[in-house]
Amino acid sequence: DTGVSQDPRHKITKRGQNVTFRCDPISEHNRLYWYRQTLGQGPEFLTYFQNEAQLEKSRLLSDRFSAERPKGSFSTLEIQRTEQGDSAMYLCASSPTTGSAEAFFGQGTRLTVV
Amino acid sequence: TQLLEQSPQFLSIQEGENLTVYCNSSSVFSSLQWYRQEPGEGPVLLVTVVTGGEVKKLKRLTFQFGDARKDSSLHITAAQTGDTGLYLCAGNTGGFKTIFGAGTRLFVKA
Fold first, then answer.
1. Is A50 near chain B, with CB under 8 Å?
2. How far is CA A70 from CA A80, B16, B56, in A?
3. In terms of Cα–Cα distance, which of A14, A17, A10 is closest to A114?
């Protein structure tokens, strides 16, 4: 296992379209996180899964956003009816359940809404 | 609200110089991480500190966790152009959520 993998790396979409991103975490990690990062800012927490259970969802995540982790392995993040303000880097990270909770990140999906 | 404030926001130095960047909060953290991020890539973990007063070294990088576990510093000795990037600190207060500072953008000139 080479780390957290995200797909696609880049996505350009028209306003109003739906997009879905995929994240494959490090295989032995139970925790999976989604973050959003805009230019000049640090990553902002969006949501967290422990195995298949979504345990927290940020207020940043409007009802147009939904995330799933159906089998406790890979996760998807869907954005419906995209808006220009959704343009950002979407980062996925995973961490083991025990230990110091340090998170390992994927390379991110850069979303541009035109 | 937990906030991690990083300073300076931007730093441009000459190759060979030393520098220190800071990460401060009013919250106590059970652990704190430093990451480096290059444009278009995800953050890469550099170090985790968990004990107040802890000092860790990674080649020319020295990380310190404050005694009260509310702050941290990263010192780079003899900076190289390859050190250029965004340095992020991130803290965990004992739960599952890690919060990030806005980062220090370092540019090392040849």
1. yes
2. 19, 50, 39
3. A14
**Chain B interface, mutation test: which of A100, A104, A110, A112, most B Cβ atoms within 10 Å?**
A100
pLDDT tens by residue, B56-90: 999 999 999 999 999 999 999 999 999 999 999 99
Write out chain A residues lying below 8 Å of B33, CB-based: 102-103
| pLDDT at B87 (0 to 100) | 98
Which residue in the set A4, A48, A110 is minimally distant from B40, CB to CB?
A: A110
For residue B66, which amino acid is it? G
Q: Is the pLDDT reported for residue B33 higher than 60?
A: yes
The CA–CA distances, whole Å, from B79 to B41, B64, B73, B84, B102 equal 21, 18, 16, 9, 22
Residue B59 has which token pair?
């080649």
- Quick: pLDDT tens for A69-88: 998 899 999 999 999 999 99
| CATH 3.40.50.300 is right for the domain spanning B5-109 | no
